[in-house]
Specification:
205 residues, alpha/beta, Maf protein, 7-stranded mixed sheet, 5 helices
Length: 205
């Protein structure tokens, strides 16, 4: 096997793609990320779990391109809301909702609530043309802030403060700082470990 293995990145979200590219940068000599085809529409997330949606996206991209595919799905679970928005996090305020609309709905739902505990979970997957599927998950606990803070990040980052941080929201951190603590960083670093073993085996064959 010569050169890095090529993987298509299934996400249609450019913010998420930049996070994943940064997290997987240490594998750049063995793993090359390819953008999803421009003419391929977004994959409808019909799964009932993060794992189902991540696999759904990766399988579609793998089949469409003939390349192994990487995908993830992420959910924010808020204790006071019974685990919502969960698998519906990206469309909490409706299909095609903006980040601001989702944050606004969450803030409205949390109005007056004292229990603000929450956690982010990401399931990251790799699907290969031979049918092999690798999965990894990562979570980070924190709390929902009463007011958005920070101008970095995306999604719910302005209102999520991780317990393991220094009191800043994800949106107040640099991408490097956030990825070191985040659910997505943990999931893709674990997936990278599992991919490294397969890539090494392929290189030696």
């Amino acid at each position: 096997m010569s050169g890095p293995a090529r993987f298509v990145l299934a996400t249609a979200n450019p913010d998420k793609a930049r996070d994943i590219e940064a997290i997987l940068a240490p594998l750049a000599d063995r793993l090359e990320l390819v953008d999803r085809p421009d003419d391929l529409g977004e994959v409808e997330e019909t799964g009932e779990t993060l794992e189902e949606n991540a696999l759904l996206k990766a399988r579609v991209l793998c089949q469409a391109t003939g390349l192994p595919a990487l995908a993830d799905d992420t959910g924010l679970e808020v204790d006071a809301l019974g685990g919502a928005p969960g698998v519906y996090s990206a469309r909490y305020a409706g299909e095609g909702a903006s980040y601001a609309a989702n944050v606004a709905k969450l803030s409205a739902e949390m109005e007056g609530r004292s229990d603000r505990r929450a956690r982010f979970t990401t399931v990251a997957v790799a699907v290969f043309p031979d049918g092999t599927e690798l999965l990894a998950s990562g979570s980070v606990a924190g709390r929902i802030l009463e007011e958005p803070r920070g101008g970095n990040g995306f999604g719910y980052d302005p209102v999520f403060c991780p317990d393991e941080g220094d009191g800043r929201s994800f949106a107040e951190m640099s991408r490097k700082e956030k990825n070191a603590l985040s659910h997505r960083g943990r999931a893709f670093r674990l997936l990278a470990e599992r991919l490294a073993g397969r890539l090494e085996a392929s290189a030696g064959s």
